[in-house]
Amino acid sequence: TAKKRETGVATLTANINTASHWDRIWANEGANTWRQYPLTFRKIASRIDQGESVLDVGCGAGVFLDIIRAHCKGVAGLDISPVAVDLLRSKGIDGKVGELPEICFPDKSFDVVVATEIVEHLDDPVGLLKQAVRVARKKVILTVPDNVLGPEEFAEHRQLFTRETLEQLLGQFFDDFEIESFADTFPTLTVTIRLPTLLAICNVKPEEVEP
């Protein structure tokens, strides 16, 4: 059964989100993965300004980075799966293998840090946000499922977010953020999913930005 963390978010005790687990998934799905979120990606891309640099944490095969790189100053990805990072690099995009919540990039090295459908997979979302604030100069953008596909229903998901628990989490790190609710629709290997989603645009505090 789920239990409450200090973040007010539900979580489970077992974690299957290992490198070997995701290596098997990416080896099977390849670069043409079904894990594409068309409306989500468009909404995030619209909040990234021309010429900004972007780090996508939990980037997978780099579907989102491939979409935005033409109008960005530079893009890079981080993922737990070496297979996923190889797929990313095959597209000519810089990538590193690493396990979240650690983000193995220098302080203030990207304008924007993006985490799409990633935070719910982590035992330590607070740790991830600490790292994202450290690395981002301007913004942190993230999405999570809105009170669906939670731990009771989907073994990969460690957290079950609502707007209220997401606000509580973000409020620990940001004075200026906004949350949008919408539903994205996309086909999986077997069915078409309508996924209620929370999108958060978080502005890094000015005092945390280096001159």
Automatic annotation (TrEMBL):
The UniProt entry, under Gene3D superfamilies, shows: Vaccinia Virus protein VP39
Coiled-coil parts of chain: none
Membrane-spanning intervals of the chain: none
Q: What species does this protein belong to?
A: marine sediment metagenome
What this protein is called in its record is Uncharacterized protein
